[in-house]
């Protein structure tokens, strides 16, 4: 009876090819908890859905292994069996060691995780999930030995179908590893590079693996590149060569760990600094990054199509002058109005620990076409009040460290009264949410009457 009822449902009258595509599009929906696999949901609805799902090999191509998983990885083996022998695979491995305060131990231990990553790669190979089938690869770990074994696998294995690679290493000096240096590093892609590779994200990967001595750049034709340097920084000739080999980059994210001092010996002279023309670059993000480092990078890059720039700095180095950073975006001749260096820039976010209001106003005069503006509102509550006339096209405001909603409401009111077409406001309250929720309910209600408001707390949860 129930089966006949299910067959008559309109969704089940769709051709299997369309229903299969619906399953594929719902695989990464935000409402599905991370610990629940989409495949287990659709196969449990009814017989028809189960039949369609089992006949859709591409629904089973994401192979995930977590540190909490127990061997022999039965669900991963099931996915590999149902994906077929030839379908490209998306491999995701997260192996992290966690400190247990009760026992004062790291679990799983670094040694166990190193053995786990080796057995994981053996498991994949035994189930015909060889690297030649990998379409994307994601590794996340805080154990250097896990990263080292993975790099060795990449160096010695062909990956002709690889389109995306992410190696994320969180350096935690508390973790008791005996060997953190595997020896003189060789290039990551020692003898090969996938011609299909378009997305690369490397966090904490030692620079020599990325900028090793090779006759030609390892990475070419990327459209998205993210680099975060936790160890020795590359010199500008190395970084310039990598960027020059990827003229089609659309998104570029560069970060330097805040606990690193900028090596002035690596700075290029103005005469010999490499110039890189990135005509396709649309979005540039830089995190922490000493201002001198940012200035040198911006001095190298010619990006006439840049539309989005995000800069996140730290209060570690008080010698840095944020005004120097904003001056990199403006051309000004004495006695004339400032002009934009990036005339198409429309989305700008800047979160320094100190901000000169006069310099910010100079910047906004040069960029009246901004539609998205982000700033740290905590210590600079008067910024929005004085810049309403300088942002005539603003539609989206992003605010971090907001601890006084009355001032935010006042600023929004001033902007709306000035004719600014502000529609959306996103507020990152950090650790202040519990206080604000109880003390400023009326302010939140008043702001929501003016704009579409999204409040995000320290955990990323929306309110």
Task: Please give a structural write-up.
- The chain contains 16 helices and 20 strands.
- Helix 6 (110-126) packs parallel to helix 7 and helix 14 (405-417) packs parallel to helix 16 (441-450).
- It is globular.
- Helix 12 links the parallel strand 16 (347-351) and strand 17.
- Strands 1-2-5-6-7-8-9-11-13-16-17-18-19-20 form a 14-stranded parallel sheet. Strands 3-4 form a two-stranded antiparallel sheet. A two-stranded parallel ribbon has the order 10-12.
- The chain has helices at residues 2-7, 16-25, 38-42, 47-54, 74-83, 110-126, 144-156, 207-210, 236-244, 291-300, 322-327, 357-366, 383-386, 405-417, 433-439, 441-450; strands spanning 62-66, 89-95, 98-100, 105-107, 134-141, 164-169, 199-203, 224-229, 251-256, 276-277, 283-288, 301-302, 308-312, 330-331, 339-340, 347-351, 372-376, 396-400, 424-430, 452-457.
- With 463 residues, it is of the alpha/beta class.
- This is F-box domain-containing protein.
- It holds the Pfam family F-box-like.
Q: How much of the sequence is in beta strands?
A: 15-25%
Given the helix and strand composition, which structural class is it?
A: alpha/beta
Going by CATH, the architecture of the domain at 321-463 would be Alpha-Beta Horseshoe
Uncertain regions: pLDDT < 50 for 5+ in a row?
29-33
Instruction: Please describe the biggest sheet, giving its number of strands, its sense, and whether it closes into a barrel.
Output: 14 strands, parallel
In the sheet with the most strands, the strands line up as 1-2-5-6-7-8-9-11-13-16-17-18-19-20
What's the count of strands? 20
Domain F-box: 12-63
Protein name: F-box domain-containing protein
Organism: Rhizoctonia solani
């Amino acid at each position: 009876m129930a089966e006949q009822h299910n067959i008559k449902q309109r969704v089940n009258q769709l051709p299997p090819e369309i229903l299969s595509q619906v399953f594929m599009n719902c695989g990464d929906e935000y409402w599905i908890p991370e610990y629940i696999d989409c495949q287990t949901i659709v196969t449990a609805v009814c017989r028809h859905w189960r039949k369609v799902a089992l006949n859709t090999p591409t629904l089973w191509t994401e192979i995930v292994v977590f540190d909490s998983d127990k061997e022999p990885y039965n669900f991963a083996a099931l996915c590999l069996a149902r994906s077929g022998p030839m379908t490209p695979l998306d491999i995701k491995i997260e192996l992290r060691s966690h400190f247990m305060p009760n026992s004062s131990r790291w679990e799983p231990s670094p040694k166990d995780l190193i053995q786990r990553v080796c057995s994981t790669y053996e498991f994949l190979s035994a189930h015909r999930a060889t690297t030649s089938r990998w379409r994307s690869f994601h590794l996340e770990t805080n154990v250097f030995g896990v990263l080292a074994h993975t790099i060795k696998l990449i160096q010695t294995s062909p990956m002709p179908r690889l389109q995306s690679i992410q190696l994320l290493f969180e350096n935690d000096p508390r973790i008791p590893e005996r060997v953190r240096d595997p020896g003189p590093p060789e290039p990551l892609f020692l003898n090969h590079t996938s011609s299909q590779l378009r997305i690369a994200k490397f966090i904490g990967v030692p620079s020599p693996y990325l900028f090793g001595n090779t006759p030609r750049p390892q990475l070419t034709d990327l459209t998205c590149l993210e680099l975060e340097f936790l160890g020795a920084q590359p010199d500008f000739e190395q970084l310039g060569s990598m960027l020059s080999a990827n003229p089609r980059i659309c998104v570029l994210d560069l970060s330097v760990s805040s606990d690193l001092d900028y090596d002035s010996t690596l700075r290029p002279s103005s005469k010999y600094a490499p110039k890189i023309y990135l005509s396709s670059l649309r979005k540039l993000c830089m995190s922490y990054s000493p201002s001198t480092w940012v200035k040198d990078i911006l001095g190298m890059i010619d990006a006439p199509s840049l539309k989005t720039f995000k800069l996140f700095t730290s209060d570690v180095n008080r010698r840095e002058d944020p005004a120097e950073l904003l001056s990199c975006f403006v051309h000004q001749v004495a006695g004339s109005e400032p002009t934009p260096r990036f005339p198409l820039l429309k989305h700008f976010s800047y979160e320094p620990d100190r901000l000169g209001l006069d310099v910010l106003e100079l910047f906004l005069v040069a960029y009246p076409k901004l539609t998205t503006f982000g700033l740290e509102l905590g210590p600079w509550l008067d910024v929005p009040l004085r810049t309403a006339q300088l942002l005539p096209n603003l539609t989206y405001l992003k605010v971090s460290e907001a601890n006084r909603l009355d001032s935010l409401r006042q600023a929004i009111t001033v902007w709306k009264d000035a004719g600014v077409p502000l529609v959306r406001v996103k507020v990152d309250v950090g650790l202040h949410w519990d206080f604000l929720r109880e003390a400023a309910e009326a302010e939140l209600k008043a702001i929501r009457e003016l704009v579409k408001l999204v409040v995000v707390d320290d955990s990323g949860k929306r309110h």
